[in-house]
Design brief:
Elements lengths: L5 E9 L5 H12 L2 E12 L4 E6 L2 H12 L6 E4 L5 H15 L5 E4 L14 H11 L5 E2 L3 H8 L4 H10 L5 E3 L8 E8 L2 E8 L9 H14 L4 H17 L27 E3 L18 E6 L2 H9 L4 E4 L9 H15 L5 E5 L2 H6 L4 E4 L1 H6 L2 H12 L3 E6 L2 H8 L5 E4 L16 H11 L4 E3 L6 H9 L4 E4 L8 H13 L14
Organism: Pelomonas caseinilytica
Pfam families: Phos_pyr_kin (PF08543), TMP-TENI (PF02581)
GO molecular function: kinase activity
Length: 507
């Protein structure tokens, strides 16, 4: 059995069992990591109020960390309630020491005030956070009030940017305690930025949500995911935890309890929006999904031949040549589209959505880089075209990109590369059939497998994952359409419904 990754949590002990190290342990268990619980402070609290905070002497904190370092070195460290400047500086010294031996992620949950209202940090501790701990943080996870104390008032995106100017690698300003139909967190990370959203779950028992979120994020980093992907997992786990919260014998809010099965619950997959969303995305009803063999070519005549041979969906992937004049490019694109058209067939144009609309094409595919390049005006126009019937497919290569695609409620999401591909250079590891099966089971729209499909047997394996379609590019030149169609049929018969276990990191 593979040993679980190790995460250290340096935080406070909640005598009521709701937050702090108690919540961290529940989150770590659900994430499948081994938690080393290091007490930095002891609190006297119950479900109603914090009645006392007692920072541990630094020698006791040092002794705990020294005992762990030789036997249980961490892949990630998470901090919660530290209680004193001296405790914070112990953490700083140990982070520097641990990083001398290799990469160690640091997630800072700046616990500055309890949900009951008790304050945990004075000005000296705030200054130490800003000047000493945050510049070492891989990611910081404040709520709106904590972000305001650390970085100033304002909207969450501005607060996250201000935190990053302090030297933080990434910031996730959580908003679960705000109002609205959606629970919204703003993520500012090297791999992505936007509003991470799920429908709000009003829960009477919510003690420990911030601790769960930060610990889950640290556990995701320890499992090898990027910050953006780990934030998706943390959002899923914390929402699951709210659903599992239960009352205590006390009079206040009970603790949250995440479920280890959260990662296989499609209802927990969040959406990532570029702009502040007003509602949960809904896919238009009545649109036929792409199914089976999905051909890709860069020639209109080849697309037409594939349609004539029996394919129902073909993507025309054209690139504008460097230095190509606008008029020449428009004429070439129009000629290739005209050559490709066949009655009743589904023609998809890659990238050039405005030109495709002008040519009467009603299905476009965009990559994540195309989404990132959209201006606010572009996003408005594309959304308006969608309302008028434009069909849309989107690429995705990671959990964050899948969540970003979900926000558009597309007609399909492509997952890739399934196997290594030479078509274009990519920074992603191959997703493999396991991730494709997870995508197919979890995504709220049809999923298309793409990348490295060279032989019909590989396409059969794609079909067996439950994907709606599988893309073939170079393989169309090596095998007839009938061979690919037969492979898809055979693979579809092997599909067994259900959600596989954990996805693998792809970056």
């Amino acid at each position: 059995m593979t040993r679980p990754p190790i995460v250290w949590s340096i935080a406070g002990l909640d005598s009521g069992g709701g937050a702090g190290l108690s919540a961290d342990q529940r989150a770590a268990d659900a994430m499948g990591v081994h938690l080393c619980a290091v007490a930095a402070a002891v609190t006297a609290q119950n479900s109603v109020a914090v009645e006392g905070i007692f920072p541990l002497p630094t020698l006791q904190i040092e002794a705990q960390l020294a005992a762990l370092a030789g036997d249980l070195p961490p892949r990630a460290v998470k901090t919660g309630l530290l209680g004193s400047v001296e405790a914070l500086r112990v953490v700083v010294r140990w982070i520097d020491r641990l990083r001398e031996g290799g990469e160690v992620a640091l997630v800072v949950d700046p616990v500055l005030r309890a949900s009951t209202g008790a304050g945990f940090a004075g000005e000296a501790l705030l200054r130490a956070y800003r000047e000493e701990l945050l510049p070492r943080a891989t990611v910081v996870t404040p709520n709106r009030d904590e972000a305001a104390r650390l970085a100033g008032a304002g909207e969450a995106p501005a607060q996250a940017q201000a935190l990053r100017r302090l030297g933080v690698g990434a910031a996730c300003v959580t908003g679960g305690d705000a109002a609205g139909a959606l629970a919204l967190d703003w993520l500012e990370a090297p791999q992505g930025r936007g509003w991470l959203a799920l429908p709000r779950r009003d829960a009477r028992h919510h003690h420990g949500t911030g601790c769960c979120f930060a610990t889950a994020l640290a556990a995701g980093l320890a499992r090898g995911f990027t910050v953006a992907d780990a934030a998706v997992l943390a959002k899923m786990l914390t929402t699951s935890a709210l659903g599992g919260g239960h009352a205590t014998p006390g009079a206040g809010a009970g603790p949250v309890h995440p479920s280890p099965g959260f990662v296989t619950d499609p209802a927990l997959l969040p959406a990532a929006f570029d702009e502040l969303p007003q509602a949960w995305p809904q896919r238009a009803a009545g649109r036929a999904a792409v199914q089976g063999v999905y051909g890709i070519t860069d020639r209109g005549a080849h697309a037409a031949a594939l349609f004539d041979a029996g394919l129902r969906t073909v993507q025309l992937r054209l690139k504008r040549a460097a230095g190509e004049a606008e008029a020449a490019w428009q004429a070439r694109l129009a000629g290739e589209v005209d050559a490709a058209r066949r009655p009743g067939a589904t023609l998809v144009v890659n990238d050039h959505w405005r030109e495709a609309l002008a040519l009467g094409v009603d299905f476009v595919h965009l990559g994540q880089e195309d989404l990132a390049a959209l201006t606010p005006a572009d996003r408005h126009d594309l959304a308006e075209a969608r309302r008028r019937g434009l069909r849309l497919g989107l690429s995705s290569h990671s959990l964050w990109e899948l969540a970003r695609a979900v926000a558009w409620a597309p007609d399909y999401v492509a997952c890739g590369p399934v196997w290594p591909t030479l078509i274009k250079a990519m920074p992603w590891r191959p997703q493999g059939l396991g991730n494709l099966a997870w995508w197919a089971a979890m995504a709220p729209v049809p999923v298309v497998g793409i990348g490295g499909v060279l032989e019909p047997g590989q396409l059969a394996d794609v079909a067996a994952t439950g994907a709606a379609a599988g893309c073939v590019v170079r393989g169309l030149l090596a095998h007839p359409v009938q061979a690919w169609a037969e492979a898809w049929r055979r693979g579809s018969e092997r599909h067994a419904p259900g959600v596989p276990g954990w996805p693998r990191p792809s970056l």
